[in-house]
Amino acid sequence: MTGLTIRRLSKSFGSVRALAGVDLDVPARALTAILGPSGCGKTTLLRLVAGFTTPDAGTIAFGDLLVSEPHTAIPPQRRRIGYVPQEGALFPHLRVADNITFGLPSAARRSRKRLAELLDLVELHSSTAERYPHELSGGQQQRVALARALAPNPSVVLLDEPFSSLDANLRLSTGRTVAQALHAAGATALLVTHDQNEALSLADQVAVMREGRLVQVGSPGAVYATPADSAVARFVGDAVLLPAVVTGRTARCALGVLSVRGGPGEGQGQVLIRPEQIEIVHGGTGVPALVGAVTYFGHDATVAMTIQPDGPTVTARVSGTRTPDPGTHVHLTVNGPVTTFPGRETAAA
């Protein structure tokens, strides 16, 4: 498999600018997630890579092969792309075996060896080969779609929100299976999603897109812990943002004096605290707070609290077995270093 290089890629539809000078390096044999809200340009980017749309400016290369520039483009069928759409788009009148091997030479289709390899790769039983798509669950259909995309050993695999139609539990299990299969195949893959949990849990690299531009590219851990700005912080997870005064490697805010991640800074700013960093202490030292709404999810819960006597409201994430009662007086501490941003903003939980 080969890597993917995108440089200064732009695309407009009439007066609407969908992409504005996008640069992205997709490492070979890794899964990169393009994460962003609806309308940010991520699907346009995927279609440009696939060759379904022509860019206004910029280039796309698979390894050393330039496949797209404004006036010259290799057509989609010659790019060796594996494409997995949202609904799988399986042929309803063909059995699973024929769906998977559809793009293979006739000799490979007859041998069945590649079919057996692919079924094993996506963790489907060999008996699945004789079934029709309507006889499969949604998760199984997406695995078949991935097997079909991987069958001809493509240069790049593109996944267009492939789990969006699945329920929460099936989405998680299918996503893990697909990611494992891509890694096992040594595939270079680009996943488009608006689901933060999906991007952070499945991808090796996350590229956050906003208004046609990539605003941050990095490992899931780096994007979550050190977002580029407060908007990225909110988008990739729950965030508590508080006004702060930064002095050196500490920040003073409504939750006390906190250790700052990264280099020293000075002046007014904001501090980013993830809800799981906030610890609720019953008695002892810490910042006093009054418990408000408690939202229970089973494995964990979120607890909204107002810092006393008249401070902002912040949200903590705690174990589902350790939820305080509304109206309880508690104390709060913050675990670990925090991230700061320049400028002031109203507190957000």
What do you see in this structure?
This protein is α+β, with helices and mostly antiparallel strands. It has two domains: 4-232, P-loop containing nucleotide triphosphate hydrolases (Rossmann fold, 3-Layer(aba) Sandwich), CATH 3.40.50; 238-342, Nucleic acid-binding proteins (OB fold (Dihydrolipoamide Acetyltransferase, E2P), Beta Barrel). The chain contains nine helices and 21 strands. The strands form four sheets. Strands 7-8-9-3-10-11 form a six-stranded mixed beta sheet, with helices on both faces. It has a five-stranded antiparallel beta sheet with strand order 2-1-4-5-6, covered by helices on one side. Strands 14-13-12-15-21 form a five-stranded antiparallel beta sheet. The two termini are 43 Å apart.
For the terminal residues, how far apart are their CA atoms? Answer: 43 Å
CATH homologous superfamily title of the largest domain: P-loop containing nucleotide triphosphate hydrolases
Quaternary status of these chains? single chain
Tell me the helix content.
10-25%
Averaging pLDDT over every residue, what do you get? 92
**What sequence of helices (H) and strands (E) makes up the elements?**
EEEHEEEEHHHHEHEHEEHHEEEEEEEEEE
CATH architecture descriptor name of the largest domain: 3-Layer(aba) Sandwich
Q: Tell how many strands the DSSP assignment holds.
A: 21
Please summarize the sheet with the most strands: 6 strands, mixed
Fold-level CATH name of the largest domain = Rossmann fold
How many discrete structural domains?
A: 2
Largest beta sheet: what is the strand line-up? 7-8-9-3-10-11
Class inferred from helices and paired strands: alpha+beta
Hey, roughly how much beta strand do the residues contain? 35-45%
Task: Give the number of helices.
Answer: 9
Any idea what the shape is?
Answer: globular
CATH class of the largest domain: Alpha Beta
Radius of gyration: 24 Å
Q: What low-confidence regions span 5 or more consecutive residues with pLDDT below 50?
A: none
